[in-house]
Amino acid sequence: MQRLRAFVNQYPTLRKGALRLRSLAKLTKSRGDIFTEYYQNHKWFDGESHSGAGSSLAYTENARRMLPVLWERYNISRFLDAPCGDFHWFQHIELPEGFEYIGADIVAPLIEHNRANFANEQRQFMRLDICKDPLPKVDMWMSRDCWFHLREDEIFQAIRSFLKSEIPYLLTTTHFACEENRDILTGGFRLLNLEKAPFLFPHPIDTIDDWIEGYPPRRLALWKREQLLHLV
After folding, report:
1. Alpha-carbon torsion 47, 52, 54, 57, what sign?
2. CA–CA distance, 142 with 5 (Å, rounded to integer)
3. Which residue of 89, 135, 142, 162 pairs with 60 in a disulfide if CB–CB is 3.0 to 4.6 A?
4. Closest CA to 225 of 132, 151, 131, 160
5. Is the same domain home to 213 and 111?
């Protein structure tokens, strides 16, 4: 296999054809299949978390410190984390008394793992496709490190899921320094600024710095449901 790849890479025409075939293969797979394959093949495993470097304890230090502050500020007692990934970093947040956490992800084996290892009276886990499934009734939905892996139309599907749910607050990742958004295939990656076209979110009501040196600057940004109704 390595010899075949080396041969293909020597010839640009063959290489472009191989890339096109990979793209077509992705188009025929569901979101669930793509991200389950990534999880099972350790595509994002960085030695600490199966959800990638952005879920390391060093990377999430500020998010872990500031999320409880945000919950108190906006009177949040029921919280949806979707996708929740492998729960590596979130398990280190001490939940307030009476607080309910729902971790959801499209990857079924990952949810089974989280249920077996982390579920308790305050934490529950469920399989969920944020682009098409009804979202549970909560006070705030956090969708961290996700939308920059989705196609533009899938992001708009997730936005519509949020607006149909009547959840008051959306907390999600945005690369505020990114000047232009581009589309990708599901499972790829690009910087994503939700205040730029085609999304044109208004200015968020609150933010949490969520990057470390060596990575593109980004924030967890908070929007009220009413701010996004024009996107329906």
Report:
1. negative
2. 40
3. 89
4. 160
5. yes
Torsion angles phi and psi, residue 134, rounded to 5: -60, 135
Q: What is the pLDDT of residue 215?
A: 95
Assign residue 6 a region: left if phi > 0, alpha if psi is -120 to 50, beta otherwise?
alpha
Number of domains in the chain: 2
What pLDDT, in 10s, does the model give residues 11-37? Answer: 555 444 444 444 444 456 999 999 999
Residue 232 pLDDT greater than 80, yes or no: no
Give CA angle at 18 (15, 20), nearest 5°. 110
75 and 13 in a common domain: no
pLDDT of res. 45? 80
Residue type, 174: T
Q: Are 87 and 13 in a shared domain?
A: no
User: In the numeric block, which tokens belong to residue 214?
Assistant: 């060596």
pLDDT at 27: 59
pTM above 0.85, yes or no: yes
Indicate the pLDDT class of residue 58, thresholds 50, 70 and 90.
Answer: very high
> Peptide bond preceding 216: is omega within 30 degrees of 0, i.e. cis?
no
Domain ranges, residue 12: 2-29
Query: In this structure, are 68 and 154 located in the same domain?
Result: yes
Lowest mean pLDDT among 47-51, 54-58, 122-126, 209-213: 47-51
Same domain, 15 and 71: no
